[in-house]
Amino acid sequence: MQGLKPKNKAKSLIITALFNTIIALVLTFMVMEKQDFFDVFMISQFIGLSICVFVSIAFEVTEQKENKWMALGIFLGLFSGIFSGALLSWIFLAFFRDVDFGYFLKNIFSSVFIFGIVFGVPIIYFFASKEKLIESEKQIQKEKIKRLTVEKEAAMTTLRILQAQIEPHFLFNTLANVISLFEIDMEKAKQMLIDFNEYLRISLQRTRQEMITLKQELDLIRQYLEIFKIRMGNRLSYTINDRTDMSELAFPPLIIQPLVENSIKYGIEPKLEGGTISIDCRIEEDNLSIMISDTGKGLDEDANQAGIGINNVSQRLENIYGSQASLMLKQNHPTGIKAMIKIPL
Amino acid sequence: MKPITAIIADDEENLRMGISVLLERLWPELTILGQAQNGIEALSLIEQERPDIAFLDIKMPGMTGVEVAKKISGICKIVFITAYDHFAVQAFESEAVDYILKPVTQNRLEKTLIRLKGQLEAQDDSLNFDLKMKKIIQVLENKEIPDYLRLIKVKTGSELRFIPVSQVLYFKAEDKYTIVQTATNEFLIKTPIKDLENMLDPKQFWRVHRSSIVNIEKIKMIKRSFTNQMMVGFDQTDHTLPVSRSYEHLFKQM
Hints:
The structure holds 2 protein chains of 2 kinds.
Chain A: H1 6-31, H2 37-62, H3 67-97, H4 101-165, H5 168-184, H6 186-206, E1 212-213, H7 214-232, E2 236-242, E3 250-251, H8 256-268, E4 275-284, E5 287-294, H9 303-321, E6 326-331, E7 337-344
Parallel strand pairs in A: 2-4
Antiparallel strand pairs in A: 1-3, 4-5, 5-7, 6-7
Helix pairs in contact in A: 1-2, 2-3, 2-4, 3-4, 5-6, 6-7, 8-9
Chain B: E1 5-9, H1 13-26, E2 31-36, H2 39-49, E3 53-57, H3 65-71, E4 77-82, H4 86-95, E5 99-101, H5 106-121, H6 126-143, E6 151-156, E7 159-164, E8 168-174, E9 177-182, E10 186-189, H7 193-199, E11 205-209, E12 212-215, E13 219-224, E14 230-234, E15 240-243
Helix pairs in contact in B: 2-3, 3-6, 4-6
């Protein structure tokens, strides 16, 4: 917390003095009609300003301290303010009005004291709200930083989408296959180049978009899996089922693909006999529900490597949909992993 | 003279076939004794056929090419096949082991074969080979050191689930168990807080109490209670956790 600046201190004193004047006017003309305005005015100023001074000192002294010390400081500040204000009032009254100390203590002090308590609290409140203001400025600063972070994140996402889709291993392995296929099976080589071309076309087209459609995403996944099918032969099979009837549904990229990639990389490729990937999209109540399951070797050994992509997907869902979307990962029976995504419609 | 023999091991059939076709063209006298589609097949094929040369893909299911090489040390010459991999290539270079980069092209293979033919005539130093493989395996394994825990394995009923750490709000010790708290669920695991602290990324997860670790990305606010206890509150929930006095300094100047 930051203490009040000198300029602010002067301002606080002026505001307190004005506040005191209003109280004096109210007291003189509406409450204690027999009193002289000047006396009430002076006493109001003594009490009010001393409370203001002492409480602001208390705030300064305790601002780095914990709450209980702050409360104690303010409490002490309030009472010191009242007592020194009362003392000043008595000196004033003794000097100008010949009031002796005994009379002051008996007849005036109690009302001065109550006056101090009743009007000291608003003064403290005034200070406290100043402190709060500083806090809320900090909050605004924080929000600004947050917004900038979000913008940076968006740029990074575009980059990541590109990197994920045209990941070097995928690229080199695919080209290695095409080159080999030229030697052994021209037809297959041609098919693979067509698939790869289609994959690149869809990929590049959409990196500039925050949202694509579910159909586009599934088309891309199909191309991706077709390429892997040529590479892995009968070790890989897949099914894609879209039961949503909403193929134009807006859908963020880089949600399904990283999970499919994980399934291949950590589930099916390392398994001797290979396996199957199934992608199933359906509408459930007000959610789009997507299940990506594989019959691979599960996540026991490579959980940390696979976890990078999974955490990214989870984070991405949260950034886009807040708490309304979810990603759940389960063991598939008898083997493999089942990822379930829920996205609000 | 006895003909020179070889085997090819790669999990992708197209690549196996491709190399085989190229070898036939570039080195017609070479006899290919067989092909293997995973590490285990490769090992038994080599032990059975005892070829002069084995072309081994690195990344194969069952057993990696390097693991196979280590097991058969001395039986035959090894040529590794690898997709672009900075670490592997560096290891091969520094240990002077033969390798071909994917995509395997006629040019690349030709160069390797010339060198290989020279080596076959010279005496093999199989004593060094074991050491070389050990070093390479070390490099490849180090590269894959699991850094931080990214998925928490939990059992709910008969089901096994994996919770991404980014979804976790905090971990809290409770009797013999540790509670894994997400925005919507609570799971129990047996790993003690003390061990978790070392497994989680310290940039994201802070120990704030003897019994708890919090995900700082999920912290909504930090406040003090009337008893002056520092508390952290979390996104999407009204859960709060106390911060020990000795950990309070973590949140100063935040």
